[in-house]
Amino acid sequence: MKRTLLTVLFAFLSGTAAVAHSLLETTLPAHEAALTDAPTEIVMNFTSGIRLTRVSMTHADETRVDLNLSEFRDFISDYVIPLEPMGIGAYLVEWRGLGDDGHALNGSFAFTVE
Q1: What is the CA radius of gyration of the chain?
Q2: Do residues 38 and 86 touch, judged by C-beta distance below 8 A?
């Protein structure tokens, strides 16, 4: 009985390590940052490789805009994505991608230009 419980526990712990996903580690602008100038690029750093499939940005109450990801084809951990500044107001960046472990990932971050 002990052997069975230890085997199950070992399998569970091994399995959780295997499904570790690529997490969004840092962004520039940082989440909830207050800036004086609108950024000309978005920087996203992940803990491991990811292939972003969509990054969109909403400024204030305007329509969401998809950012250009055409130069990013591989699984990488650091992205620098150019963007057209849209002036003062609240920005919301939403992203979706595929981790190098095969899992679908998504998230968002926000900042303000004052």
Answers
A1: 18
A2: yes
